[in-house]
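Researcher: Here's the sequence for the chain we discussed earlier.
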Amino acid sequence: MKRLLVFLLITLLSGYNLSAEQTDTKDSIRTPSVNGKEFLLHYYQQTLDSLQKCVDGLSDAQLQFKAAPDRWSISQRLEPVVLTEKALFDFATKGMNAAANPERRKEIKVTDETIIKGINDRSHKAKADAALTGKGKYSTSADAIAELQDYRKVILDYINSVSLLDLRNHINDSPFGAIDGFQSFLFVAEHTSRHTLQIKEVKADAIFPKQ
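Model: Thanks. This is the structure I predict for it:
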């Protein structure tokens, strides 16, 4: 599991390089609207809605379509969304279960905005870990969305149970440096956003089934 989490976190930001202009080392809680708890909750809903809209009504032929033998189908891409959310949620809650350590805030070099931009950068496409390779189990997109909605409820209930200050005051180590609890939970929703972009790429293929 630890190796898988490291892979996930590296993959999510592997396509985006941090620069001095994109870092914030101030030992304080950032205040732009994107950094609030209301935004975080809204973003979870937004990413779920976007995925649902992207796959709603797809036929079995469309769900199982592969542009090439070594490429993933939409059904295969839907499976890791749920699997990875569980793994990233475990990572986030593990950090929250530890003692608060706000004195480490000065170690954080990455902003929330950079995380969002980096994960949605599709200019770099990393090969997925074998443990996350989908088997194409979903015959309807509704099945995948229902499973994701069920697990999202667990995550949102947890987020609603903690304060923004608590999220910001729990600093955890990641493969690219220190991040706080809020940012850990950003990764969960952002992973869904990245897979939605990947699914859109599959649908844009010239030979994607019309129905």
